[in-house]
């Protein structure tokens, strides 16, 4: 729960979303909050999650409670992880570095996006003792993909979280309407040394030209050979 004296009390996730909409520029908020096309999948995801229910157990001693568990043998203090999302520095000057510190304080896993605005190494240095995973897009440039995996392994990331459901980037109507461009000074930091920097308006072209749209099970075998 937020207790900032200069703003409203934020008690739930929806409160944070509404507050973000108030604080962030429209283009930035829509980039984070939006989905592809008419956002049918976005709505269905929330509807599907809402169908899950917690079954109450009554007359059971709950004086001692423990939310900790493990995910793929990684201990976490609660069953909520930080999913990989791109370009956090549009919302905060420290971007994914701040997100990693927060995940460490909460005792959970930080999953860093390939398209992060902080590097693999910066995030590792921010919370060196915390569990962290790396989300990977496979590029047509296999040497670039190998380099990303090697950097993640060297920086102590415990798993590769492979994105397999984006052979092509969906058309994002909100970004089109907003004429989205990444703010000056913010880049896809992990790709900076290998690719010309692509601003937001060129993100679709970047994915179309450089992302491996033909990903298959054979590529999974290749990825497994790159690390343990």
**Sequence stretches where pLDDT stays below 50 over 5 or more residues:** none
What coarse outline follows from CA principal-axis ratios? globular
What structural class should be given to the helix and strand makeup? mainly alpha
Total helices: the number is 9
DSSP strand count: 5
- Major sheet attributes: 3 strands, parallel
Query: Which bin fits the share of residues in helices?
Result: 25-40%
| First and last CA, distance | 38 Å
Strand content: 5-15%
Q: What is the H/E order?
A: HHHEEHEHEHEHHH
Whole-angstrom Rg = 19 Å
Strand order in space, largest sheet: 3-4-5
Short structural description:
The chain is mainly alpha-helical.
Question: What does this entry look like structurally?
Answer:
The structure is a single chain. The protein is mostly helical. The chain is 36% helix and 7% strand. The strands form 2 sheets. It has a 3-stranded parallel beta sheet with strand order 3-4-5. Helix 4 packs parallel to helix 5. It starts with 12 loop residues before the first helix and ends with a helix.
Distinctive features:
228 residues; mainly alpha; three-stranded parallel sheet; two-stranded antiparallel sheet
Question: Topology, please?
Answer:
Elements lengths: L12 H11 L2 H8 L6 H11 L18 E3 L2 E3 L19 H11 L3 E3 L7 H7 L5 E5 L5 H13 L5 E3 L10 H6 L24 H8 L6 H8 L4
Parallel strand pairs: 3-4, 4-5
Antiparallel strand pairs: 1-2
